[in-house]
Structure formats: structure tokens, C-alpha cells
UniProtKB/TrEMBL annotation:
PANTHER family hit by this protein: ENTEROCHELIN ESTERASE-RELATED, FERRI-BACILLIBACTIN ESTERASE BESA
Domain of life: Bacteria
Name the record gives this protein: Esterase
Source organism: Melittangium boletus DSM 14713
Pfam families reported in the protein's UniProt record: Esterase (PF00756)
Gene3D superfamilies in the cross-refs: alpha/beta hydrolase
Length: 279
């Protein structure tokens, strides 16, 4: 009888212990903090699905107005989605910028998706899966943008933002397919790719047309070598051959490194391109 009572007492204690939260967890489990929603978007162009994260500004639920859309490369939850949406939120909250929708596209193989083809041996050794930017751009323009426009109140104004290899993709898209987006934010773009071919061909691209009404923000840290020569060549081409109707600005930040520039440069770009309209 004593053994049976002891058994039941032990079982009851075990069950109650399992029901209790761990000692390092608050008794009140709280509530989730939600900054967006995540979707999978099918793509015939890429032959599969891509993960897309969407942030809506606080004013979206109560407003009937439409909003510009910022398309964020490397926009996964473990990539740049959190800090870029944070910048968009705080800048609008402080009255410095317009509210905007942020659409983050999660990376799968960024070395493939964000680079145009190169035959340079060094490039092929560093990034053996490279060369998929054309198809990735088609996915963004032909599939993702219509998907977003069908679901959200968009103003029709679209911007593309990216850093490093993503900045290379932004710059390529701006120069070679300027009609893809209205605004371009390229932070520390990897213009060393393909022996700096993109910057070397920039003057010819700028003369090809399609830039009226476009806006470009270029930023770079204290990066020398091919990173700097490529962007300096691009800036010179913009000065010499910048077409009428193109609004561009160059924002060098010598106090920042390649791994620290994105946050401050992105905030400056958002403020510059999306100011609160004069009433």
C-alpha cells in the first residue's frame, strides 16, 4: 500500500513538473511580435518557389491610400529583412519618410541569382554557380511585382535595394534594364565582377535611354582596390553621360567598412528617396 502511494505521488509530481514552465522561462509566455508575413511565390521562370517576406507599414490597415514598394534583395528572416524593415518603420514614425511596403526576397543561391555571366577564371573559381541574374530579374519583374500589386495597395512606385553582390545586381539592373524599377539603391556594389566590365560599359549603357524619371543612390565605405575603382568609374560616367531626367547621388562613407555600411547607407537612401511630401 505504501509502495503504491509512493508510486502515485511520484507520478503526480512528475506530471506537475512537466506542466510547469522551465525555470528559465517566464510564467507569462507573452505574445508573438509580428513584423510581417511570409509566403512562397511560385515561379515558372526559376522553376520552383521562392520565399517572400512582406512588411506593411502601421498606417496600411487604417488607410485607403496606396504605398510605394521597396524590393529587398537578401530579404530572408536570417538575412536583411529585419533591419531594413526596422529602418523603414522608424524613419516613417519619426516623420522623416513616407510609409512604404517592404518585400524581402529570401536568397537561395545568391552567388547564382545576383551575378551576370563572367568568363574571368578568377570569378568562375570564386563563384562557380554564377551567371543567373537575367532569369532572376525576370522573376522579379514579370512574376513577383504583379503578385505584389494584385494583393496590396501599391502606388506604382517601386524601388530595388541591395548590398555587395546584391548591390552588383541593383547596378546591373539600373544600367541594363532601367525600366525594371523606378528607384535603385546600390550599397558597396561588387563592381569588381567580370574585371569591372559593368562600370567600363556604363557610359554606353547610360546613352541607351530609358532613364528619365529614374533615381539612383550609390554608397560605398572605405573600400579601395577594385571595389573603389569600379564605382569611381561609374560615378564619372554618370557625371559625363548622365541622361536628362535621371536623379542620382553618390554617398561615400569613409568611416564605414564593407561589413558596416549597409545600415547607415540604407537609412540615408530611404530618407533621400522617400521624403514626406510637402503639404
Amino acid at each position: 500500500m505504501i509502495k503504491r502511494q509512493l508510486l502515485w505521488a511520484t507520478l503526480a509530481w512528475t506530471l506537475s513538473a512537466e506542466a510547469r514552465p522551465p525555470t528559465n522561462t517566464p510564467a507569462d509566455s507573452g505574445r508573438p511580435v509580428v513584423i510581417g508575413r511570409s509566403y512562397t511565390v511560385p515561379s515558372k521562370i526559376l522553376g520552383g518557389k521562392r520565399r517572400v517576406n512582406v512588411y506593411l507599414p502601421p498606417g496600411y490597415a487604417d488607410a485607403k491610400r496606396s504605398f510605394p514598394v521597396l524590393y529587398l534583395l537578401d530579404g530572408g528572416e536570417a538575412e536583411d529583412f529585419h533591419h531594413i524593415t526596422g529602418l523603414a518603420q522608424v524613419a516613417a514614425f519619426n516623420g522623416k519618410t513616407q510609409e512604404m511596403i517592404v518585400v524581402g526576397i529570401e536568397g537561395v543561391d545568391r552567388k547564382h541569382d545576383l551575378t551576370h555571366p563572367s568568363k574571368v577564371p578568377r570569378d568562375l573559381e570564386l563563384l562557380p554557380t554564377s551567371g543567373g541574374s537575367a532569369a532572376y530579374r525576370r522573376f522579379l519583374v514579370e512574376e513577383l511585382k504583379p503578385w505584389v500589386a494584385a494583393r496590396y495597395r501599391t502606388s506604382g512606385r517601386t524601388a530595388l535595394i541591395g548590398e555587395s553582390l546584391a548591390g552588383l545586381f541593383v547596378t546591373e539592373t539600373f544600367l541594363r534594364a532601367p525600366g525594371s524599377f523606378d528607384d535603385y539603391i546600390a550599397v558597396s556594389p561588387s563592381l569588381w565582377w567580370e574585371d569591372e566590365a559593368l562600370s567600363k560599359e556604363a557610359a554606353a549603357d547610360l546613352r541607351s535611354g530609358g532613364f528619365r524619371g529614374r533615381r539612383l543612390y550609390l554608397g560605398i565605405g572605405n573600400e579601395g582596390g577594385e571595389m573603389r575603382t569600379g564605382i569611381d568609374r561609374l560615378v564619372q560616367a554618370l557625371k559625363d553621360d548622365g541622361p536628362d531626367g535621371l536623379d542620382w547621388r553618390f554617398d561615400p562613407r569613409p568611416d564605414e567598412r564593407h561589413d558596416t555600411i549597409y545600415h547607415p547607407a540604407a537609412l540615408a537612401a530611404i530618407r533621400a528617396l522617400f521624403p514626406v511630401p510637402d503639404k
